[in-house]
């Protein structure tokens, strides 16, 4: 089956065996009908008190990886302790029977300061999370391609990609005045893969004060690793803001950042923009920022075709970081597999002093709120990619820069109080348009005004849109795109300029 240019995962291969998924759905529904109970604090004190350095000295022994001699997929586990104070339960489904996967300290090496843990009985510790391995880049080595660790977070990578942004099972009341609620996966069931497996299926039980849920993930590693997500949610309480298919990333500074640290690296980010494919077929690009104050942007839509946090800049020379390798951080795209109806994509940008904090979140919020006693089904595909989705055939914004509009010797002119913006577009439909064609600039400002808008051909192929915003102390919310014969030939670029705030 092909949907929006993507090959849908073969979930039908598992349709004959929904017994276990239905059992998780039933458990989730039963949970929602009872008052929320936080997990018991069962972790031994010695693990609760571990610091970062000691926790890192606990390592799973790869020789103990589950299924490594039986399947191309293998499983390794994370030890509880440090930040991971609430263990999860793991089960393996084999021959239609689910069996608990018990914790065993024999699976781990305890080095350095962690060696003292050998003196304690850790048998009831259970697991913090797990990671999946597969020969992704070559047949001789099983690369880690997916990890589930912490609350409802999980990360995936494709071929030659390095971990960057994360996704979550659900986001509740993100950036709300009353605080965010973090649902967590409490238990997992993994179908043991066979010798010819090309994809991996697992089930999960999610719980939190407001909602419980049953999830099914079908993961297919490859050049762009894909995850088909199916979920049944049951609300205990009214949920003001239910964030579906949330993506969490980091943006510290980039090419358009006015403020940047004293750092040799020209850019530091896991993602540089939010891309949306609207229900009407339009493509919208919003460059990310690291604001001085929390910002929430909403993009109203109906039945969106996709959205994602993108890392468009993939040239090492734009980062110069040999350790973090930001040029290898993947983009991640979300495609609804059923109708999402009216709602909005919400972008949250949180101030961060450095790259150790994730400060970018994007998700879908339906207009139809989820109230206590109600249920909701989710079905979508999320996958990594190095480039934009194949369906995106318009010109792309490859560069956003701004600076003082004053030219040489004009420091005392009125132009010195204006901001000059340039947005460069290349690729897609623009590759077929010669420099002498009458490309026009379609530009508007929802807030503020724009001055001197114009479009010019670039010498190295592509087109430049430029404009100024006045120095009136007010934000400017600008949208622009390139057109030819009144038809769009580029995506729509959207940016909000806050004077003296970036």
Task: Walk me through the structure.
With 502 residues, the protein is mainly beta. Helices cover 4% and strands 43% of the residues. The strands form six sheets. The protein has a 15-stranded mixed beta sheet that branches. Strands 4, 8, 9, 10, 11, 12, 17, 22, 25 and 26 form a ten-stranded antiparallel beta sheet that branches. Strand 13 and strand 14 form a beta hairpin. It is globular and about 75 Å long. The N terminus is likely disordered.
Give the key terms.
502 residues; mainly beta; 15-stranded mixed sheet; ten-stranded antiparallel sheet; 43% strand; disordered N terminus
Largest sheet: 15 strands, mixed
Number of helices: 3
Helix content: under 10%
Got a strand count?
Answer: 35
Mean model confidence by pLDDT: 93
Sequence-ordered SSE layout with sheet pairings:
Layout: E1 2-3, E2 6-7, H1 19-32, H2 45-48, H3 52-55, E3 58-60, E4 74-79, E5 89-94, E6 97-100, E7 108-110, E8 127-138, E9 141-149, E10 153-156, E11 166-168, E12 171-172, E13 184-191, E14 200-207, E15 211-220, E16 226-235, E17 242-249, E18 251-253, E19 268-269, E20 273-277, E21 283-287, E22 295-302, E23 306-310, E24 331-336, E25 342-349, E26 360-366, E27 375-385, E28 396-404, E29 419-426, E30 440-447, E31 451-457, E32 463-469, E33 476-484, E34 487-488, E35 492-497
Provide a short characterization of the protein structure:
The model is unreliable at 1-16 (pLDDT under 50). The protein is mainly β and 502 residues long.
């Amino acid at each position: 089956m092909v949907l929006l240019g993507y090959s849908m995962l073969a979930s039908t291969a598992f349709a004959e065996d929904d017994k276990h998924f239905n059992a998780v759905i039933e458990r989730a529904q039963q949970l929602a009908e009872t008052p929320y109970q936080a997990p018991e604090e069962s972790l031994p004190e010695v693990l609760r008190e571990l610091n970062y350095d000691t926790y890192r000295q606990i390592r799973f022994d790869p020789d103990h990886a589950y299924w490594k001699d039986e399947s191309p997929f293998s499983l390794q586990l994370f030890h509880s302790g440090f930040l991971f104070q609430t263990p999860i339960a793991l089960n393996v489904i084999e021959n239609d029977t689910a069996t608990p996967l018990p914790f065993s300290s024999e699976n781990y090496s305890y080095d350095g300061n962690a060696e003292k843990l050998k003196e304690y009985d850790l048998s009831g510790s259970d697991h913090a999370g797990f990671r999946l391995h597969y020969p992704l880049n070559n047949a001789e080595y099983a690369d880690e391609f997916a990890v589930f660790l912490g609350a409802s977070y999980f990360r995936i990578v494709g071929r030659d990609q390095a971990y960057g942004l994360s996704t979550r099972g659900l986001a509740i009341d993100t950036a709300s005045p009353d605080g965010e609620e973090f649902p967590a996966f409490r238990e997992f069931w993994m179908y043991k893969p066979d010798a010819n497996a090309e994809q991996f299926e697992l089930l999960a039980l999610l719980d939190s004060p407001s909602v419980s849920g049953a999830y099914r993930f079908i993961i297919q590693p490859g050049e762009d690793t894909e995850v088909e997500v199916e979920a049944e949610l049951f609300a205990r309480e009214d949920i003001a803001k239910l964030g579906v298919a949330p993506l969490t990333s980091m943006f510290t500074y980039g090419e358009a950042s006015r403020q940047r640290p004293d750092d040799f690296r020209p850019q530091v980010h896991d993602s540089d923009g939010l891309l949306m494919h609207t229900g009407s077929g339009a493509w919208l690009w919003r460059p990310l920022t690291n604001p001085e104050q929390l910002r929430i942007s909403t993009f109203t839509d109906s039945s969106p075709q996709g959205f994602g946090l993108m890392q468009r800049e993939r040239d090492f020379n734009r980062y110069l970081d040999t350790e973090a390798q930001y040029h290898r951080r993947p983009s991640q795209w979300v495609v609804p597999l059923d109708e999402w109806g009216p709602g909005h994509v919400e972008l949250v940008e949180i101030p961060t002093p450095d790259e150790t904090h994730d400060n970018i979140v994007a998700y879908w919020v339906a207009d139809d709120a989820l109230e206590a006693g109600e249920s909701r089904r989710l079905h979508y595909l999320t996958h990594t990619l190095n480039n934009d989705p194949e369906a995106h055939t318009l010109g792309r914004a490859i560069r956003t820069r701004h600076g003082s509009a004053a030219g040489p010797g004009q420091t005392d002119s009125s132009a010195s109080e204006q901001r000059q913006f340039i947005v460069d577009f290349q690729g897609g439909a623009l590759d077929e348009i010669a420099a002498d064609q009458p490309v026009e600039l379609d530009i508007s400002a929802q807030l503020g005004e724009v001055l001197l808008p114009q479009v010019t051909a670039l010498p190295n192929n592509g087109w430049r849109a430029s404009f100024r915003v006045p120095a009136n102390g007010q934000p400017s919310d600008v949208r622009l795109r390139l057109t030819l014969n009144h038809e769009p030939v580029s995506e729509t670029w959207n940016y909000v300029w806050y004077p003296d705030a970036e």
